[in-house]
Amino acid sequence: MSAQSGITASEALLSTYNSLSNSRPLVIRLSDDNTSLVEDETFTSGTGSNSDHFESVSSHLSSSHPHPAYLIIPIDEESSLFASFIPDEAPIREKMLYASTKSTLLTQLGSGNFKKSHVFAWSELPEVSLKNFNKEIASHAADNDSLLTEEERLLNQINSLQSFSIAETNDKYKRQLASMDGTPHSSSTSSLSSAAATSSGTSTTGVSFKIDPDLEVALNSFATPGQLLAFKINLTTETVHLTSSETSVKPSTLISHLTASASTESAPHPQYALFQYSPNRVSFIYSCPSGSKVKERMVYASNKKSLLNHVKSILSANDLTVDKSFEVGDLDELELGEFDEQKEDENASSTRLKFNKPKGPRRR
Question: What is the CATH number of the domain that holds 92?
C-alpha cells in the first residue's frame, strides 16, 4: 500500500466540483504551501465540445509543463474522466506529493462518480487528447473481454437478456399502476403473468423466451394424474417448445419416459418436465445430463425460476399445485420414491402425530 501525503481537497474545491455538473473541465493543483488541493484558477475553458475540452486542458498543461496536475474532463452529461498528470520530468518532490494524494482526492470527490475505465494516470502531453482517450477506452474494453472465459461471456449475455426481461416486466407493471383509476382492463393486461400472443408463439412476462402455442395448450389441459409433459428451449428460435406429452405414466417408468424424450437428439441436452404423480399434485423436473453444452446449461439454469413461476400460474387456475421441484444431472439420479403416494401419506401422518418431548427439570 502506498503512503498517503495527508493533503486533502479544500472546501472551495469541493464546492466548485459539486457545482460543475459536467459543464466544463477542472484542473486541480497543490496550493502554494502544499497543504491542500485547490482549483487552478489560471485555467479557463468554455463549455464547448469534448475535443475543445481536451485541447484547452492540453494547452494549459503545456504552458506550465512539467508541473503535475489532476484533471477532471467531462465526457457527456452523465460521466467525466479523472486523470493524474505527472510528467516524468517533474520535480521529484512534486511527483511524490501528487502520486501519494491521488487516492485521497478520488475518495473526497466520490470514487463512484468515475467509472473504473475513466480513471487514468498520464505522464505525457499527447495523452491528454480525445483521440488517446477513445483509444484507451477501446483497449480497456478489449482487454476485459479477452480475460473472460467463454462461460463468463455467455453468462454476461444471459444476464443482459434477463435484465431486459426484468425491465420489460417492470415497465408493464408501472403502466398498470398508472392506469389504476377505475378504468377497466382487458384480460391480456390484467396481471403480471398474462401473455401476449404473437405469430411465432407466446411472449410471457418474466420468461426470456417465447412459449410455443402447443406447449401453452398442453399446460392449460394438464389435468390427468399420470400425465407427463417434457419441454425444451430452442436457442435458435428462442422458444420453449413441447417435446412429448404422455398419459398413464407411473413413477416406476418415469425415468424411461423422460430418457426417451431426451434421446430424440444425438447429443445430450437439458430438459424440463411436469409430472402429475397424484391427483392435483405436480412435480417440476429439471435435468441437465453430463455432456450438455455450457451455453445450454447456463440458459436452462437462469430461466428455470421464471418458467416455473409461469407454469405455476397456469396450473393453479386448474386447481393443480406444483409441490415438488427436482434438479438433477443425469436422469437416473431422480429419486422415484419421492412420488410414492403411500410415503407421502405416511409422512403427513407422522407429522401430525409428532409430539415434542417434555423438557426435564433444570439441574441445580
Answer: 3.40.20.10
Q: Is there a single domain that holds both residue 121 and residue 258?
A: no
Residue 151 lies in a domain: no
Residue 304 has pLDDT above 50, yes or no: yes
Q: Which three cell numbers stand for residue 136?
A: 484507451
Burial of 353 per CB tally in 10 Å (0-12, 13-18, 19+): exposed
Do residues 118 and 199 share a domain? no
Instruction: Please report the pLDDT score of residue 360 as a whole number.
Output: 59
Distance between CA 333 and CA 23 in Å, rounded?
A: 62
Average pLDDT over residues 235-254: 90
Supply the mean pLDDT for the chain: 79
Residue with cell 468554455: 46
Q: Indicate whether 225 and 315 sit together in one domain.
A: yes
Range of the domain at 63: 8-146
**What pLDDT, on the 0 to 100 scale, is given for residue 152?**
62
Alpha-carbon span 340 to 298, nearest angstrom:
32
- Residue 189 clears pLDDT 60, i.e. is over it: no
Which one has a higher pLDDT value, 89 or 144?
A: 89
**pLDDT at 63 (0 to 100):** 95
- What are all long-range contacts of 293-299, with beta carbons under 8 Å and residues at least 24 apart? 293/267, 293/269, 294/150, 294/151, 294/154, 295/154, 295/235, 296/233, 296/235, 296/269, 296/270, 297/270, 298/151, 298/154, 298/155, 298/158, 299/158, 299/233, 299/235
- For the chain, percent of residues with pLDDT exceeding 90: 41
Give me the pLDDT at residue 364, please: 54
pLDDT value at 68 more than 90: yes
Domain identity same for 65 and 138:
yes
Residue 290, in any domain of the structure: yes
